[in-house]
Amino acid sequence: MIVGVGGQGTLLASRVLGRLLLAEGFDVKVSEVHGMSQRGGSVVTYVRYGRSVASPVIDAGQADYIVSFELLEAARWLGHLAPDGHIITNTRQIDPMPVITGAAEYPSDLAAKLAAAGARVDAFDALAPAERAGSSKSVNIVLMGRLSRYFEFAETAWERALSECVPTRFIDMNKEAFRLGRDGSPV
Q1: In a 3-state reduction of DSSP, which class is residue 133?
Q2: Most exposed: 59, 72, 92, 160, by fewest CB within 10 Å?
Q3: CA 20 to CA 169: how far, in whole Å?
Q4: DSSP 52
């Protein structure tokens, strides 16, 4: 599952992952749920792959990986994580409307709470490497780089998928964002 807030690039990330998996010979199904994404609301994309996939939807307790662009979104979708699953999450917070208006507080120590709930959590600041690569908008590709550490696909296969999904004028920046996510601090 790829989860985030509208405008963060979750859909591009799902296209890159889907393209990679297709190129590696898997049957792939992708389903996008936008919700109030255009107003900064929650966005979730399901990416299922295997020899044969009948449905794109990932039910509760079935996600091997949740790639989260924001900590609160990781917490929101925790129930979908498989017992031995991983959460790869950006630690930067995006305050939802109740926090912005003062009606609620952003929960503290979310990464620790996710781990305490049994999740294997890889939490890191994905914005800093994105900015080093050239754009804060490449957080999605930094996260794909981090996700790539959990798969045995060649880095060149990921780069090929990137090249097929990203406009040519942005490919070098996105390859650098991917590399920074992949080569970042230890998991």
Answers
A1: helix
A2: 59
A3: 20
A4: S
- Which pLDDT does position 43 carry in this prediction? 83
Going across the sheet that includes 2-5, the strands are 27-33, 42-50, 2-5, 63-68, 81-90, 120-124
pLDDT, tens digit (0-9, with 9 covering 90-100), for 41-78: 778 999 999 999 988 889 999 999 999 999 999 999 99
3-state secondary structure 172-186: HHHHHHHHHHHHCCC
Q: Count other C-beta atoms under 10 Å from residue 81's C-beta.
A: 25
φ/ψ (deg, to 5) at 89:
-140, 145
Q: Domains for the chain: give ranges and CATH numbers.
A: 2-183 (3.40.920.10)
Q: Determine whether 164 is exposed, middle or buried from the number of CB atoms within 10 Å of its CB (0-12, 13-18, 19+).
A: middle
**How far is CA 131 from each of CA 3, 137, 164, 180, rounded to the nearest angstrom?**
21, 8, 22, 10
Confidence check: pLDDT of 38 > 60? no
The rounded radius of gyration (Å) of the Cα atoms in the chain is 16
CA distance 13 to 185: 21
